[in-house]
Amino acid sequence: MVSGERIETVYLGGGTPSQLSGEQLSQLFSQIDKVYSLRAGTETEVTMECNPDDVTAEFAAVLSQLPVNRVSMGAQTFSDERLRFLHRRHTTQQVKDAVAILRQTGIRNISIDLMYGFPDETLDDWHYDIDEALALGVEHLSAYSLMYEEGTPLYRLLEQGRITELDEELSLQMYNDLIDRLTAAGYEHYEISNFALDGFRSRHNSSYWHGIPYIGLGAAAHSYDGRNTRRWNTDNIEAYIEGIEQGHPVFESETLDADTLYNEQVMTALRTCEGLPLDNLTPPYRDYCLKLAQRFLDDQLLILSDNRLRLTRRGLFVSNMVMSELMMVNDTPA
Questions:
Q1: Neighbouring-strand partners of residue 224
Q2: 195 neighbors 189 (Cβ within 8 angstroms)
Q3: Could you report how far apart the first and last alpha carbons of the chain are, in Å?
Q4: DSSP assignment, residue 70?
Q5: Got the DSSP string for 163-185?
């Protein structure tokens, strides 16, 4: 993007922006507006990630002076015991208080994250979390299964036998119940892990899934030109700052080849309810994709309609497998 070009969304996150001072936040948005005319686009979606315990009356006063119109919070669970297990700072009451404060501030677009699959978690526990989230009346919900990533404290606890990973069948049932309960409550299941009331999809995240160009600001931030080039800033904060000050930003970049672009379309588009538009693929890749997709169509894991491949309800449960099987792993199709 170039200076003065209109932006459709701003997402302040990837860290803890609610820890910044009011002066720092004002300075940040002032500069964004100066370069990209943020305030000129009244329809711009401006999201800020917040820790629930950071949302106080004082913070709300700061927020009211900013162009933020959407807030995303990691509630994770409405069990204080499980929050302590995750070493989260906030309590369940602070999540509820934060939503109330944000409403008083005039924020009419709130998203919260939930997590399921905790050790020893029951279906009743999970249903309680969903019901508590629905009771808050938030416009957007994201839900993710607890992951045990190698090298993390959780993974070490699992290795030591101090906790037990939840049974896969129970985890799948939790995901199934999540879909049923949220859709019954009027939420659209528009992406594998995301649900929104009408008109409240995350426009920012949707841009990633639909290949829209984006620019990342800050250390380790990524950018994409919407065609075939991706770049990422150094994750060394000192080097990043020094590069900016000297007028020579420190970053790396890559040019995406045809196979990589195809694979990324499969990986991102199939996550959405719109699915993968076959018209966006060149004939060799379209033929390749349809050939591999046939067995999933036969097994009713995929459906083909309006020249789009979409995951079925059953396909959602094995989405990673389906997507990986459709990807290009050798040479470009002839």
A1: 214, 230
A2: yes
A3: 34
A4: E
A5: S-PPPHHHHHHHHHHHHHHHHHT
Q: What is the pLDDT of residues 203-254, one digit of tens each?
A: 999 998 888 999 999 999 999 998 889 999 999 999 999 999 999 999 999 9
Beta strands 9-12 and 45-50 are parallel
57 Cβ contact list (under 8 Å, min separation 6): 101
In whole angstroms, what is the distance from residue 299 CA to residue 312 CA? 10
Q: Which tokens hold the place of 10?
A: 């701003």
Token reading at 135? 């009771």
Domain residue ranges of the chain, discontinuous segments joined by + = 9-207, 213-255, 258-326
Going from the C-alpha of 25 to that of each of 17, 30, 32, the distances in angstroms are: 8, 8, 11
**pTM higher than the cut 0.70:** yes
Spatial separation of the C-alpha atoms in residues 42 and 129, rounded to whole Å: 35
161: left (phi over 0), alpha (psi -120 to 50) or beta: left
Q: Is 136 helix (H, G, I), strand (E, B) or coil?
A: helix
CATH domain 9-207 topology? Transcription Regulator spoIIAA (3.30.750)
- Taking a C-beta distance cutoff of 8 angstroms, is the pair 230, 256 a contact? yes
